[in-house]
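step 3/5: co-fold with iron/sulfur cluster
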Amino acid sequence: MALMITDDCTACDACVEPCPNNAISAGSPIYVIDPAKCTECVGAHDEPQCITVCPADCIVPDPSHKESKEELLAKYQMLHG
Ligand code: SF4
Ligand code: SF4
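step 4/5: write tokens
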């Protein structure tokens, strides 16, 4: 499933660059993950890179976007041609 950013986000910007799908952008006031682009890093990395770098521990699974690993991989392949 796609991940989401909670209100604990401090808008530090650390998660934007590591995302292989350009899924994270600055919102107001917290950063946001585009569920149409987040693949939990499936297709690119073993672990979600945003969770790895987030100092606030505020990135969690988004229960409203449940997807299988196969669906996430298909999304990654669609995004990257
Ligand atoms: S899990 Fe990966 S693809 Fe999803 S927002 Fe985080 S870095 Fe981007
Ligand atoms: S790394 Fe964490 S605290 Fe920093 S902008 Fe991203 S979600 Fe917010």
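step 5/5: annotate
Helices lie at 49-53, 69-79.
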